[in-house]
Amino acid sequence: MQTEGTSQGILGSVRALGAQLLGSLKERIELFSLEYHEQNNLLLRSIVWTAAILFTGMMALIFASLTLVYLFWDTWRIPVLAGLAILYLAVFGTLLLLFRRMRLRQPLPFASTLRELEKDRACILGDN
């Protein structure tokens, strides 16, 4: 009779441990899903804004450049074209450096999920 009670106790403990592990896994999957959804929305918004900014900026640059070249067509056509090319190249380089710096400062995606998994690992290994 005592062996049956002991086996029920062990079986009950294993079931409780399994239920806790499944509950923890479910929470981590939900957290990952939420962070994935946030990252997906952020990416989509960034793409739309970037496309709009690029389109309007390029149209402004094209028309401003055409206006300058037209104004100086007879006298300073080549220097104006060269100056515009140098200006656009400098702006391009600056924007590229700023974009790279911004990307390096971005937090890692799914950082919360990774932190929670690390806490779980530490708890299981007894590194509290």
Task: Characterize the structure shown.
This protein has helices at 2-71, 77-105, 111-125. By secondary structure, it is mainly alpha-helical. The protein has one domain. It is rod-shaped, with a radius of gyration of 30 Å. The relative contact order is 0.07. The mean pLDDT is 84.
Notable features of this structure?
128 residues; rod-shaped; mainly alpha; single chain
Number of domains in the coordinates? 1
The ordered H/E elements are HHH
Task: Report the C-alpha radius of gyration, rounded.
Answer: 30 Å
- Going by helix content, strand content and strand pairing, the class is mainly alpha
Shape: rod-shaped
The percent range for strand residues is: under 5%
How much is the average pLDDT? 84
Distance N to C terminus = 39 Å
As an assembly, this protein is single chain
What is the tally of beta strands? 0
Map the helices and strands:
Elements: H1 2-71, H2 77-105, H3 111-125
Helix pairs in contact: 1-2, 1-3
Can you summarize this structure?
This protein is mostly helical and 128 residues long. Helix content is 89%, strand content 0%.
